[in-house]
């Protein structure tokens, strides 16, 4: 995710951090290994990511605890461990793409032992981020910025203006294609997304309770091939606005006929948008460019 703002105080401080807090550089030698664009390699990458999940969390947590210790103990090793553990977390994440010449588990265990957490304890904010964390493991003498942030009471933000409705951006174009073709495209999107969905829930019918679910890359590519096999003119505007209207229930006509709609695209919004973008992104942007130049 990317946070973009022109708020002067945030921009000024971001610039200050950029110049005064350099990014930690990973200089650990890499193993010489490459992956091919095959399903076997995809599977191997997924396994690497899965096996790294615990390492990513462990190294990140230890880095935060070590940062707390650096505020309280006069020992530079804790500052060094913050940097080292940050790099180890990066290595664990990157393990899916490349292997490094280091035993992550062994190194993390070594650092954790030397930090002596059992004796030094955990900072007070730890019980705020870990539900049910044992109170006897908290060391209330440990002071750090996160403890103060945990006590800050932020007032609920209440905007002065209403949220802009979808129809503010939505352009409704005339549907020039055969409606049967449009419904065929819609069915393809439903078919592929539901296949994976039902596989994941093992038959438990939660379709009416679930908003978004994902396709793996292989199934998504197959779906795009099937949709492209349908003869549709290069003017996709009518098709796209028709599908989006049915999925997001934008126009009054669709809203008034919601009970009669035999469509599950409202359960597949993210997949629908991704599919339309892949088919013809220029047309998709035109569907959502209404009033964009007025503000």
Summed up, what is this model?
The chain has helices spanning 8-20, 39-72, 77-94, 104-115, 117-120, 126-129, 145-151, 179-201, 217-229, 237-248, 252-256, 269-287. The chain is mostly helical and 295 residues long. The longest helix has 34 residues, at 39-72.
* Topology order in helix (H) and strand (E) letters: HHHHHHHHHHHH
Q: Number of DSSP helices? A: 12
Helical fraction equals 55-70%
- What is the global morphology? extended
Strand content: under 5%
Number of strands: 0
Major beta-sheet overview: none
Radius of gyration: 26 Å
N-C termini distance: 24 Å
Average pLDDT metric? 79
Which residues form runs of ≥5 with pLDDT under 50?
A: 199-215
Tally of individual domains: 2
SSE-based structural type: mainly alpha
Characterise the protein shown here:
This protein is mainly α. The chain folds into two domains: 113 residues, no CATH class; 121 residues, no CATH class. It is built from twelve helices and no strands. Helix 2 runs parallel beside helix 4, helix 3 packs antiparallel against helix 4 and helix 8 runs antiparallel to helix 9. It is extended, with a radius of gyration of 26 Å. The chain starts with 7 loop residues before the first helix and ends in an 8-residue tail after the last helix. About 6% of the residues have low confidence.
Please specify the SSE layout and strand pairing.
Layout: H1 8-20, H2 39-72, H3 77-94, H4 104-115, H5 117-120, H6 126-129, H7 145-151, H8 179-201, H9 217-229, H10 237-248, H11 252-256, H12 269-287
Helix pairs in contact: 2-3, 2-4, 3-4, 8-9, 10-12
């Amino acid at each position: 995710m990317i946070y973009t703002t022109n708020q002067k105080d945030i921009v000024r401080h971001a610039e200050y951090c950029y110049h005064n807090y350099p990014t930690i550089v990973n200089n650990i030698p890499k193993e010489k290994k490459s992956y091919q664009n095959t399903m076997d390699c995809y599977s191997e990458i997924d396994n690497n990511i899965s096996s790294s999940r615990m390492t990513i969390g462990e190294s990140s947590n230890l880095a935060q605890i070590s940062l707390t210790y650096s505020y309280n103990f006069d020992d530079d090793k804790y500052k060094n461990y913050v940097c080292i553990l940050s790099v180890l977390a990066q290595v664990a994440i990157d393990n899916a793409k490349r292997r490094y010449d280091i035993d992550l588990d062994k190194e993390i265990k070594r650092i954790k032992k030397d930090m002596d957490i059992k004796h030094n304890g955990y900072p007070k904010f730890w019980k705020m981020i870990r539900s049910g964390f044992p109170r006897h493991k908290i060391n209330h003498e440990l002071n750090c910025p996160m403890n103060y942030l945990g006590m800050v009471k932020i007032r609920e933000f209440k905007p002065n203006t209403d949220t802009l409705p979808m129809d503010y951006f939505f352009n409704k174009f005339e549907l020039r294609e055969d409606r049967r073709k449009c419904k065929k495209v819609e069915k393809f999107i439903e078919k592929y997304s539901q296949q994976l969905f039902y596989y994941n829930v093992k038959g438990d019918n939660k379709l009416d309770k679930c908003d978004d679910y994902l396709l793996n890359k292989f199934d998504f590519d197959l779906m795009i091939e099937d949709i492209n096999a349908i003869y549709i003119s290069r003017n996709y505007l009518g098709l796209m606005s028709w599908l989006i209207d049915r999925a997001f229930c934008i126009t009054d006509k669709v809203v008034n006929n919601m009970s009669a709609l035999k469509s599950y695209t409202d359960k597949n919004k993210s997949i629908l948008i991704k599919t339309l973008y892949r088919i013809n992104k220029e047309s998709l942007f035109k569907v959502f460019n209404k009033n964009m130049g007025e503000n």
